[in-house]
Amino acid sequence: MEKPVPPLIQVTTALGSRGSEADKQKANAAAQNRTKIETRNLDFYYSEKQALFDISAKIPERAVTALIGPSGCGKSTFLRTLNRMNDIVLGTRHTGEVLLEGINIYDPQVDVVALRKRVGMVFQKSTPFPKSIFDNVAFGPRIAGQNNYAALTELVESCLRRAALWEEVKDRLNDSAMALSGGQQQRLCIARALATSPDVLLMDEPASALDPASTARIEDLIFELKSNYTIVIVTHNMQQAARVSDCTAFFYQGKMVEFGGTQTLFTTPKEQQTEDYITGRFG
Ligand SMILES: Nc1ncnc2c1ncn2[C@@H]1O[C@H](COP(=O)(O)OP(=O)(O)OP(=O)(O)O)[C@@H](O)[C@H]1O
Ligand SMILES: [Mg+2]
How many structural domains compose the chain? Predict the structure, then answer.
């Protein structure tokens, strides 16, 4: 059961509705071509230190975009600019624009809480709340005012199913989330992110702390989720980027050196720096 999406800006209707089922199917078909998020000439600073330089990128809807590059090149910073998560870091500022479906998310009229519901985030280290499995997934909907137990139960089940965790936890929903394995906790965090009905999922190295079997499950999940969500994933692992993503952006020293189809970028990169990185000459 999907609730209507709250508009980012209360006065505009442009982002207010996801449309009918038929429209959704059409949107699905057009997915590869439509831009969901666009950054224009984005510069970003931590106080005096500039961390991103003139980033212009178009992130396609209902596809997976991977951000790769050596440590410290700005991948996480860029990811966090997409749902204003950097706002909580003191002394940060930016110039340029980040557009979600054409609307600048840094516009003073934008409701940041509504924005973060639309653009959910999963962090590198799984961060379940010290609550039950059920309460973790129900957390966001409850804050949004959903207190109907039957509706919450239905929503929790559907999110856990979409996160490929339901079968493993359905008999112990009241157990503490902290008792789950690392891979299960990470899928729980994905279920928790799905519970606020986002359109976009930002994932910062979601599988970096996991064993190969759990990593494979997360990768399968990402593949399944992309039919309904726009996904941006940071990964250090180039094989993973090649496996899960449709587009890849290569970052180096705060600049986006190259952005393109994953296969093209990995097989015939345009830039020498990209080639040097993917062939392991640095990073
Ligand atoms: N809160 C912060 N305050 C000041 N500088 C920061 C902060 N977070 C990141 N930086 C700096 O911004 C630059 C980009 O960091 P960022 O975390 O985006 O890199 P990254 O590509 O995600 O690296 P990694 O692969 O190691 O996670 C680095 O030089 C880093 O030191
Ligand atoms: Mg990072």
Answer: 1
